[in-house]
Amino acid sequence: MDKQTSLAFILIGIIFVVWFYFNSPKPTQLPQKKSQPTAVDQKDSMSNKPITEQLKEEVKQPEETPAFGQTAKDEKIITIETDLARIELTSKGAKIRRYFLKKFKTWYHNDIPASDTNFFNQHVQLVNTLKNGGDLDITFTTTKRDSVNTSNLDFKSNATNYYYQISGKDSLSINYTFSADSGKAIKKNFVFFGDNYASKIDIELDGMDNIIDNYKYFLFWSNGLNFVEGNSVDEANNSHASVFSSNDKFDFKAKSSGEKINLEKNGQVDWVSIKNKYFAMILTSLNPRSEDGFSIKGNHVTNSFGVREYYGTGLMMPFRNQKIKKDSFLLYLGPVDYYLLKTYNNNFQNLFEFGSLFGLKFIIRPISEFVMLPMLRFLHSFITNWGLVIILFSFIIKFALHPLTRQSLKSMRKMQMLQPKISELKEKFKDTPQKVQQETMKLYSTYGINPMGGCLPMLLQMPILVALWSLFNVVVDIRQQPFIFWIKNLSSPDIIVRLPFKLPLFGLDVISGLAVLMGITMFIQQKMTIQDPSQKAMIYIMPVMMTMMFMGLPSGLNLYYFMFNLLSIAQQYYVNHKHSDLELVPVANPKKKQGFMARLMESAEKQAQAQKQAANKKKK
Question: What does pTM read for this prediction?
């Protein structure tokens, strides 16, 4: 490996460093308090209290004082159980009180004693109940300039039971009515389906023509989504509100502590959403009009429980002083599953983040959307263990790149054989480096060697690596999926050691087993490749740097890269031994060689001629 190749590796490393710096989640620095845990690593800082009790200790925000109606009645809760969720509705505001996903476990479910079989402690719950005890409110301004939020109004339900169970294609309708003076009423009707994460919401405003001002009202999801992952920083990094309009998705994010978002826009909107790492709320109108709009509110806070990003979003609906105003909506509460979202035929799948390489989504998205994700899903259709799927996937990618990498390895083998000749040139022209460069380029051309050929496989790997990083970071299929031994969750780092200090420069206080194995295989690769004594430092620099960067990445990604390196070592060993009798034979007509080599030689010759002319001028 010569200097040009080494420089290419260094540049690749710099690209990795910069990209991972801006994309990898970093633990937040929080003041240590004995009485409160830190959400970045909640399991290690927990007290002796049961974890379900500790999660309730976050301070609740005070409820707003209602400006319309009374709140004197007791809250009545109705539970609906479907194949996918357990839903609680409350008469206080006629809203969704809690929404449990039956197929997804809490991040702390393994810490709960086996004797505790409580459903509510085991499953993900999406509604943020810290304020007003639920969500999905109607808001408007009255002609008296009062702001009304139905969150605190007492609604009456037509339900005759407090528990319902539906399955398959069955559906259930629950109607809520708030009655005011003179026949005025606000009605909410929920329609739930047995096999669907989406529900239908019907809104009816009766006799409100002299009450609602500004020709509009909002159906608003106010309090964001519940935090359901162990690493609050990582979850906050993947949280934002979105608006989809005219085939474009616009994301809104409060990125820094204390930053707030408060935005209201008119115009046709297809849907609005709030997303965290793996789950989302999507709200869309079933009868959109051009006068529609949206509203988004957001807040980024850091407290003793970690980083929190709260988003509220809703649809602005036109109101033209009708005696009776009716609108229908679709509400999705569930996983960010690309293929599931696609079945709704409303571009919901655009919520899925396929990742980006320095903003070049047009490179990464096709790789992820049309190659990586379908292939992983296909393999998982007959292999249940996701770790085995990733290993087989590594074989497939390596096989696909084999023709290219084989030629690159042969080229690198020739360069190793060329090193003695290059050393002779360095000794012969030790006083004229430019002459050494020129003659070296001639050697490459004579023997048909591309000095950058060895870097090509790594360059080709980078879009694949970024695509996989994005997938393993957000694809809900891999969430909490174990592999073997210490690898309990392929979507998070496989931590084997927690250090009592942070490593300088990298800020790491954990050791990932697979990252270490990946670094070892990279070291072996470098050892097999680099023969130039002046480049020996690369054997140690690149593996150490890459190992440090991969410490905080999902173990699924590290597993892939470890396996790919192992296969590369085997391939290189095979090429080296199969071509052990390889001889350096000049190509038939090196002057006909075009492209990269031609440009290198032309550049070297021009540089040498310019320096020769400059030296002649000085002599004169």
Answer: 0.79
